[in-house]
Specification:
single chain; 2 domains; 8-stranded parallel β-barrel; 12 helices; elongated
Length: 386
């Protein structure tokens, strides 16, 4: 069954210059209200993982519902501190000595991926212990993610300290433990992960003040078992008396964005091939990396509707293919296509390979109408090179 746009949204998008991302405030608020209800029900804190979604013109809205941000680099930390201006948590697999001073001044919660990094930076960190809290990321060695690329608990993972490498005698100054093991998963996966976490690291929890259950919780997906998540958090808090943090990225912006594209040309080579002004390689890289097949308004799998096309991007990469889709009417030059669920892991991951320009960013305001918040030009390409 093909997905359709509401007539109001379709009307709004008619005027959008392509290619462009459109983030819909009303859809975002729907997700944020659910995340806020989780905070209210359980007393847990919820952070926005900036790696997934960092459209900062929306931070004034998002900050009304969430506690802060989870950053994974110096620049994300600065964005979070300056533009979100609530709690700033930072985790990186390794901090450089050059950057650590700034990391320390920007973050209020800093998570270390190893005891060697903790020992390297401990003296400067502890000089700030009145204002900052520090944690170790642990690896519960319990895999729930089926794709190795996204499984932080896969064999030989560099992410998090395993129990065998944990150094309890180095915990002075550490007030938290962090794990991140999930990707697009339901709360039963978290429950099993907490069990593994407790069995390996539970003995250290009485010495802690807080834990962070990471991201990968698909909380805003229809069918997500939120009651089970709430009971898992309630039980954990009651047992250990700790603050619980979650740092979802995708769940914050799930199903609230679109990518609008236009057909530039139609060519034939054994089938009809439409070349778009939007590219898988540059504008929706997860289509190739995950990989996955994005939904398009009014389109169905190939052969279902009368007109089938392979959709490709304007780069010279042979594999810049979005997929094969069928449509009720034939496509022609200028036809507009709208891809669903394009807010998360798109704007933060896109690139200017081939000099292809980045899509503009528009916001669909809750009171109606589209607002252009960012347009890109030659200077943005030039600025990345020298
Ligand atoms: C440490 C950490 N926290 C949070 C996230 C956010 O995950 P998601 O966007 O799947 O919720 C990630 C994603 O890779 C991560 O590595």
């Amino acid at each position: 069954m093909e997905l359709k746009l509401s007539s109001e949204l379709a009307e709004d998008l008619k005027s959008a210059p392509t290619p462009c991302y459109v983030v819909d405030e009303r859809l975002l608020i729907k997700n944020l209200l659910l995340l806020e209800s989780l905070r209210v029900r359980t007393g847990c804190k919820v952070l926005l993982a900036l790696k997934a979604f960092a459209a900062f013109s929306l931070f004034p809205l998002i900050r009304n519902y969430l506690d802060g941000v989870a950053a994974s680099s110096l620049d994300e930390a600065r964005l979070g501190r300056e533009e979100f201006a609530k709690e700033t948590h930072i985790f990186s697999p390794a901090y450089s000595e050059r950057e650590f001073g700034q990391i320390l001044s920007l973050g209020d919660h800093i998570v270390f991926n190893s005891f060697s990094q903790w020992k390297l930076f401990r003296t400067s960190a502890l000089a700030m212990r009145e204002q900052k809290r520090f944690a170790i990321r642990v690896n519960p060695e319990h895999s729930e993610v089926k794709t190795a690329l996204y499984d932080p608990c896969a064999p030989f993972s560099r992410l998090g300290v395993t129990r065998a490498n944990f150094e309890p005698e180095q915990l002075e100054g550490i007030s938290g433990l962090h794990f991140h093991t999930l990707c697009e998963l339901n709360s039963d996966s978290l429950v099993r992960t907490i069990e593994a976490f407790e069995s390996k690291f539970g003995e250290f929890l009485p010495r802690m003040e807080w834990v962070n259950f990471g991201g990968g919780h698909h909380i805003t997906r229809p069918g997500y078992a939120i009651d089970l998540l709430c009971s898992a958090i309630d039980r954990f808090k009651a047992k250990y008396g700790l603050e619980v943090y979650l740092e979802p990225g995708e769940a914050v912006a799930l199903n609230c964005g679109f990518l609008a594209a236009s057909v530039l040309d139609i060519v034939q080579n054994g089938m009809n091939i439409a070349i778009l002004d939007a590219s898988a390689a540059t504008h929706m890289p997860d289509v190739l990396e995950m990989p996955y097949r994005p939904e398009i308004a009014g389109a169905a799998p190939p052969g279902v509707l009368p007109y089938t096309y392979r959709l490709g991007g304007p780069t010279c990469l042979a594999g810049d293919i979005i997929g094969d889709y069928s449509f009720q009417e034939p496509l022609s030059v200028g036809s507009k296509l709208v891809f669903f669920d394009m807010a998360h892991y798109t704007m933060v991951k896109n690139n200017t390979f081939n000099g292809v320009r980045l899509p503009s960013i528009l916001v669909r305001k809750k009171e109606g109408g589209l607002k252009m918040v960012r347009e890109f030009d030659y200077e943005d390409y030039l600025g990345r090179l020298s």
